[in-house]
Amino acid sequence: MGRENTTSVTEFVLVGFSIYTKNPPLFFAIGLLVYILTLAGNVAIIALIQADQCLQTPMYFLLGNLSFVEICYTSTTVPKMLWDLLLGDKTISFVGCALQMYFFVTLGGTECVLLSAMAYDRYAAICHPLRYSLLMSPPICRSLLVISWAIGNFNSIVNTAMVFSLNFCHSNKIDHFFCDIPPLLQLSCSDTFVSQLVTFTISGCVMIVPFSLTLLSYIFIVFSVLKIHTAHGRIKAFSTCASHLTVMSMFYGTIIYTYIRPSSTHSMEQDHIVSVLYAIITPMLNPLIYSFRNKEVQGALQRALAKSRL
Fold first, then answer.
1. Per-position b or e across 208-242, b if 16+ CB within 10 A of its CB
2. Residue 24 lies in a domain
3. Is residue 1 part of a domain?
4. Distance between CA 191 and CA 187 in Å, rounded?
5. pTM of the entire structure?
6. pLDDT of 229-276, one tens digit each?
7. In whole angstroms, what is the distance from residue 243 CA to residue 247 CA?
8. Exposed end of the chain (fewer CB within 10 Å): N or C?
9. Is residue 12 within 8 Å of 174, Cβ to Cβ?
């Protein structure tokens, strides 16, 4: 295409929810409620872990950091979405779009690796209980956290740089409610083959490798649990993994569906629904899953409520 037919895009318009929002005030109220519940639930998890000595363990150290990631993760997309619904201002600057993608992809990649680290924690606790304090020592926990953030940042820097080095000349309307990789690749007027290949390869590794390590951890866990002679012992061992398995299934399932399919197979209507699940609904449900299915968290909450009544 000749340079004279190419215009420089300085802002984008997020139109992903336009065809669904026939009643913006209702969607705004629902979105605001979900966001408040997400913040309240994850802040409560962090506060309980910090305040209760019984939760000062590697498992809850990782859980507290997961809740922090969830707060940041949902805050990269939901406030802008609520602003659009409230005022109808769907524009986002070129730089703002790049920053939103960078933080969203960073936090998503960090959560992938962090969930794998939590699976390793359960593997160490069930398969090697006598060596648990060594396998999950404070330096190792901090190292797992640093590795999670480093991988998330690397994935995001590469993908954001690849996407925003493309030309956007025909339209500035993003068929999504936030700046994500697939809709921006579809919007570009450049040849996106290399960008798609890089995204598929790097993001695929960031998702599939932790997911595979998580599955491997649970394979070892299953074999160890099956060696327990009593049914009560097996149920107790599995119960410590139930919350993590639920969260992992929800998160990995939706992001793998979104990011490691070829661009030609993408249906934006389906992607909108799946994106709502992993970007908005899952961060809200995680604290509920961990609190309702975890007796230690329930006990900590009861102790905190009892202290508040004194």
1. eebbebbeebbeebeebbeeeeeeeeeeebeebbe
2. yes
3. no
4. 11
5. 0.87
6. 787 777 777 776 777 777 878 788 777 777 666 555 556 666 677 778
7. 6
8. C
9. yes
